[in-house]
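Amino acids appear as letters; backbone shape is given numerically. Here is one record.
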Amino acid sequence: MPDSVRRLAQTNARASLLEPLVREGVTESLIELGECLVISHPAVSTMLIGYSTLRHLEEAIAAPETGLWARPTCAPVHPLGETPK
């Protein structure tokens, strides 16, 4: 198996661990959650995005307006284990 295929499978497996947050209504989508994490962390200054469908792009554009990034919702899954300020 090529290394890139293996890494993609690992990334998909990690992302699937966050899907309960969508089912529980914490976030509308993994796109919204991802942007929440980026927007809320003071050490992150840039977000590079690339989406495969128009729907994904529309979700990405709407995500900052939901206010999710300003709530402590991100804290349990924040990659650096810090609560967003």
User: Anything to note?
Assistant: The mean pLDDT is 77. The radius of gyration is 14 Å. The chain has one domain: 3-74. Residues 3-74 form one domain.
